[in-house]
Amino acid sequence: MKNYILFFLLISCFPVISQENKKDTLKPKDLKEVIIIGKKAQLFEKQAKTLSSIDEYLQKSAKVDMIKRGAYAWEPIINSMPTERTLVTIDGMRIFGACTDKMDPITSYVEVSNLSEATLSSGQEGACFGSTIGGSIDLKRNQSDFGNNKWDFNINSGFESNNKQKIIGASINYSDSLYYVSSDFMLRDAQNYVAGNNKEIEFSQFRKMNFSGTTGYKLATNKLLEGSVIYDKATNVGYPALPMDVSIAEALITSLKYEYAPKNSLVTNWETKLYYNTIMHRMDDTKRPLVPIHMDMPGWSKTFGYYSKIKMNFESHHFLINFNSFYNTAVAKMTMYPSNSNEKPMFMYTWPDIRTFYNGIFIEDNYVLNCHSGIKFSASIGSHSNKVASEFGLGSLQIFYPDMNAQKNRFLKSFSSNYNYNKNGLEYGIGIGYGERAPSVSEGYGFYLFNSFDGFDHIGNPNLKNEKSLEGNAYVGLKKEKWNAKISSSYFHISNYIIGKPDTTLVPMTIGANGVKIYSEFNYATIYNVSLSTEYKLSKTLKWNSQLVVSRGKDCNDVNLPFISPFSYMSSITYFKNKFSSEFSVQGNGIQTSYSALYREDKTPDYVILNLSFGYNFKINKSKIITKIGAENLLDTYYSTYSDWNNLPRMGRNLFLNLNYSL
């Protein structure tokens, strides 16, 4: 393996020599799941609700679910694993939230109107841009093309009855033979939502504004320079499942990309991107009643990074090499103001200015065996360094770890191998993988972080070992003229499993907390997921889809892990004819019998909800209007699921109207 990696390191350091190669007529089969969101016009128009949030699109996947703390900014779970064990990027850019309570997942800084697709990679197939255990999601923005003085205008508008959400957006795009400019704006404003049986959920309001801009210039027929920016600002965001809300969450995400497509060369594409992003997040409890002690909790995250991704073809080999690096600073503070104004405020760093520096290389060889089968190998190595820059914060942590150093260096490795076969409608595959990850900032250096789910203050542990995962996956599918079915499974054996353990010798800082937990390691934990997806074409205009998912997770003591989904299902019937479309869907969960009482979970009941939508496309000269109208949770069911923080009830009956106008 060392010689294999060294070989690619050496060839990537030399200029590419143009030469004639044997033409490869076989193409590799990419096993990644792609969730279409935007510009694929026909598919976009067929969505039941075109102006859904990114979260609603993502959770349609059998491998993705969401932890909900309110009506906004849900935390994605991949293969039953939360964000510490997964990786979310925007166009390959590493971005880190600034909130210790995960109120600002990376998915919250994009909009459906400026994204084309989400590429979901399971396990170590998602290690292209850094270390991961559960997998990755890369949110890809709309790609503009060079045209002939071409203008494109779009206006989006929507309304949802339950929380009085108002949606307005617009995009303007221009392209000619030398350059293009794309811009997109979206505004959402919502009041408190109402759960089933007309129960108002206080502090669930939000307001969000998002702007995205991209401009590209053709340096030559095969050379492109592109700059892009995302500005996102959310204000007055309520989190009813948490003790605090958010007064402001603001993100600025910028990048500069150079892309080169050589001719008659081993290299088919070389893409290099420099990026910078800054996140600011401020928690707020001033609107909550009966607050024992007011707290001010701001956080900041800044990331500089780059990647250089090279694609090469040689005979039946399709290589991908990605050099990537980032430097992140994470700071979070807490100031407590006693009700007695004569007492001094109390201050501490909850993230004591952690500097993270990562350098890595990812190598993939997608080898086509024949026209029916192929095998894909991948491997990555990376150096990961954490440094506590705040002397005050370092001193606080040294109360618990007197011998800790300000800096901790780690070495991370991963590899995977997948075989796939596809012939006459029969497809199957099997794969294995191994990966490592470093503890997150909270797990390694968090200082008295209150978790409102289990009611404990949490303290990080800089002496944690790397978490290691050995995984296996398999799938088999059959595709016929009128129907297809596919069953997929994955299994993860995670060593040095990081989780908080109670320490009875410590006194909590948060008023009313159940105690203090120190992030520690279990010997191992196991997680497996099985899903069955089917599609049946009842006629040329009628189609039936279904999805069944089963997941389980336990630690080395045979105790259930938290946030593992019970049996879940979804079934829908869609109808398309000419300009008209409709969809009726059923979705639900079984009873959560394998809940984790140790982590303060309880038994959530089963539920079933019904959804219905209709759509019609109008064409007026060169203009097109897409209308969507429908009802979610048609029967106004009152329910809560395993992934709803503190059993937060979900939205009741919701009528929506979406309008999309394009010229």
Task: Describe this protein's structure.
By secondary structure, the chain is mainly β. Helices cover 5% and strands 57% of the residues. The chain has a 22-stranded antiparallel beta barrel. Strands 1-6-7-4-5 form a five-stranded mixed β-sheet, with no helix packed on it. A hairpin with a 2-residue loop joins strand 13 and strand 14. It starts with a helix and ends with a strand.
Notable characteristics:
disordered N terminus; 22-stranded antiparallel β-barrel; 57% strand; five-stranded mixed β-sheet; 663 residues; single chain; 5% helix; 5 helices; mainly beta
Structure summary:
This protein is mainly beta. The protein contains 5 helices and 33 strands.
The major pleated sheet works out as: 22 strands, antiparallel, barrel
Question: Could you tell me the radius of gyration in angstroms?
Answer: 25 Å
Q: Indicate the overall shape.
A: globular
Number of strands: 33
Structural class: mainly beta
How do the strands and helices of this protein lay out in sequence?
Layout: H1 2-11, E1 33-36, H2 41-45, H3 54-58, E2 64-67, E3 75-78, E4 86-90, E5 93-94, E6 115-122, E7 135-141, E8 150-160, E9 165-175, E10 179-190, E11 194-195, E12 199-200, E13 206-220, E14 223-237, E15 245-260, E16 267-284, E17 294-314, E18 317-337, E19 346-368, E20 373-388, H4 391-397, E21 407-423, E22 426-437, H5 441-445, E23 449-451, E24 456-459, E25 467-479, E26 483-502, E27 515-537, E28 542-555, E29 568-577, E30 580-589, E31 607-620, E32 623-632, E33 654-662
Parallel strand pairs: 4-7, 24-27
Antiparallel strand pairs: 1-6, 2-3, 4-5, 6-7, 8-9, 8-33, 9-10, 10-13, 11-12, 13-14, 14-15, 15-16, 16-17, 17-18, 18-19, 19-20, 20-21, 21-22, 22-25, 23-24, 25-26, 26-27, 27-28, 28-29, 29-30, 30-31, 31-32, 32-33
